[in-house]
Amino acid sequence: MELSNNLHNATNGFKLGLARRSVWLLAQVVKYASAAQTAKLLRVAELVTRNQETSAALENFRTKVLGQHGASYQFMQRIQRESSPTCQKKFVQNLIGNELIVGTAKRRKFAEREGFRPPTFILISPTMRCNLNCIGCSTRRYMYSKKDDWPPELLDRVLTEAKEMGMYFVVTLGGETFMREDIFDAYEKHNDTYWLQYTNGTLIDENMARRLAQVGNVAPALSVEGFEKETDERRGKGTWKKIMRAAKLLKEEGVIFGFSATVTSQNAELVASDEFVDFLIDQGCLFGWYFQYIPIGNNPDVSLMATPEQRNQLRKFNHYVCANKPIFIGDFWNDGTRCNGCLAGGNQYLHINGDGNVEPCGFVHFAVDNIKDKSLKEVCNSEFFREIRRRQQATTAPDRYSDNLLTPCQIIDQPWVLREIVEQTGAFPTHEGAETIITDSKIKAHLDEYSKRLHELMDPIWEQEYQQRQPDYHDQSAPAAKTTQASANYG
Questions:
Q1: Bond before 175 cis per omega within 30 degrees
Q2: 312-330 in b/e burial notation, b at 16+ Cβ within 10 A?
Q3: Beta strands in 209-307 (DSSP E)
């Protein structure tokens, strides 16, 4: 028996090593390899990977993204053509090799050992300082100083523990992370991770763009609200020009970067338009993230929430973009069918805010633990997080989280879920005013009405379009549109 186990472990170790070697070789030649050659190297990694989940993910990436057809192939051509050799290598080594192959194996071992599956990635806010004062920001009323930043040793510990659990993908929020003068020390020390960094972009100058190209493992997402008028109205006059300058510098240095846009009732049609996305592609954006405006913080304006109809138009537009344009688009609220619902509570990720409080996601500002007092492993398995995951995974009413993956959010799609979990677990609000989303009668009434209208719209779509056929995110038969019109024409 012992000999059999040793042989099994040795074989698995050899396979993992061969898979990593294939990805390492891909990282060396990605600038020069054709899509077919790249696909062959990934096929080797896929065949020898010992984990079925990882192998399936590699197969999906190889067949859907590297197959010589449509927007996915064009997207990979842009990665090869527009990014620097260092950025390409880190994209392949860290995101595919470490996060997808090594990380998946580590997370599986962790689950076998500890009895629960760790998150896939981690979202952190190592500083809450910001050089802007944007309308609608949940932290804009607070004054943060350098003394409020995470100490360097805390940042290092969290990143180290994350990798030990199998997380090699780190997302930074804030605040404005580039306010930390020492953030490049973390990039360099943890150069086996891949960083997605949300940023207002105004601090990116020639020197910073050059340093980002040198480390290669950081992908900035520049925050925009539309074009100049919309962005400056929320973020301050002159912000748009600074963001466009940052995009120009990043493109010149070959840094992989993208955009993020908060969708509101006022800009929903604009940000879901060909004009908007095509312009950002021309500026060099290789990816984009859409976020729904969530009424959190002090005195939020619920009228800024995009309507259910606007959200549905964005869903159809995102399918159209992924089928027709050389850019990756992500949208957590409309991507439930791709990621199997809500990711929060350590299911796939969690958020650690500037005070160290551990939140289920970047928009659920409640916690029961602080990372300064406990390990990452301990906070991932809190009663608060376990209850969230239990409801996400339940199969029967009344505990079932949502049987419609087009309505995955516990905050706005099923607002009673967040209220019940907070009351049941005693989770505390992580900043002044955070509790209003579950205690303020006007906000509660608005969210209940929003949820009712959303389900009236989305439930028939789920039953008719998704229950019968789960459409692939990159499906070429996704709703198309005229190429010069806004979102009203999609679908």
A1: yes
A2: bbbbbbbbbbbbbbbbbbb
A3: 218-224, 258-263, 287-292
Peptide bond into 471 cis (omega under 30): no
Residue located via tokens 């360099």? 188
- Which residues, in sequence order, are bridge partners of residue 359? 351
Residue 11: count other Cβ atoms within 10 Å of its Cβ: 11
330, amino acid identity: G
Coil, helix or strand for 337? helix
Beta strands in 311-391, from DSSP E residues, in sequence order: 328-331, 351-352, 358-359, 366-367
At 89, list the tokens: 């290598």
| pLDDT tens profile 279-328 | 999 999 999 999 999 999 778 899 999 999 999 999 999 999 988 999 99
Find the angle CA(387)-CA(388)-CA(389) to the nearest 5 degrees.
Answer: 90
pTM: predicted TM-score of the whole model, two decimal places: 0.86
- Distance, in Å, from the CA atom of 390 to the CA atom of 379, rounded to the nearest integer, reads 16
Q: Is the pLDDT of residue 422 over 70?
A: yes
- Taking the CB of residue 337, how many other CB atoms lie within 10 A of it? 19
Sheet containing 258-263: which strands, arranged edge to edge? 328-331, 287-292, 258-263, 218-224, 194-199, 169-172, 122-124, 351-352, 358-359
Instruction: For residue 170, give the H/E element and its range.
Output: strand 169-172
Number of residues that this document lists for the chain: 491
Burial 33-69 (b: 16+ CB within 10 A, else e): bebeebbebbbbbbebbbbeebbebbeebbebbbeee
Per-residue pLDDT reduced to its tens digit, 439-453: 999 999 999 999 999
Torsion sign, CA atoms 471, 411, 221, 239: positive
SS3 189: helix
